[in-house]
Amino acid sequence: MDQLQHARIVSDGTHVAVYQIKEVYGRPLAYPVNDRAETLQNLTGFKTLRRNDIAMIEELGFSVVTIHGERIKPNMIG
Predict the structure, then answer these.
(1) Strand order in the sheet with 16-24
(2) Domain containing 69: what range?
(3) Which stretches of the chain are assigned E, i.e. beta strand?
(4) How many domains does the chain have?
(5) pLDDT tens profile 15-69
């Protein structure tokens, strides 16, 4: 089982939004991994997490983390 599958399995149904950060044309972008992150991205209308969305998502009671469990900070994504 790879890291993405593991992150999805252990976090689905929780208040944890898990994202994978990938470099795209030299810019770090955060893509949703689990069901919560996908739902939140559907609400924003964007495929990737934006810097200003992090605080709003956390205000809703969610933790916004990478697949490694590290809290995502605005300066981590482009």
Answers:
(1) 27-32, 16-24, 63-66
(2) 3-76
(3) 16-24, 27-32, 63-66
(4) 1
(5) 999 999 999 999 999 999 999 999 999 999 999 999 999 999 999 999 999 999 9
Supply 10's token pair. 């252990």
CA-CA distance, 33 to 11, in Å (whole number)?
A: 9
- CB-based contacts of 7, cutoff 8 Å, min separation 6: 18, 20, 33, 34, 67
CA distance 32 to 45: 13
Residues in the chain: 78
Q: Which two tokens stand for residue 34?
A: 């689990």
* Residue for token pair 């994202």: 19
Reported pTM: 0.87
Q: How far is CA 52 from the centre of its chain?
A: 13
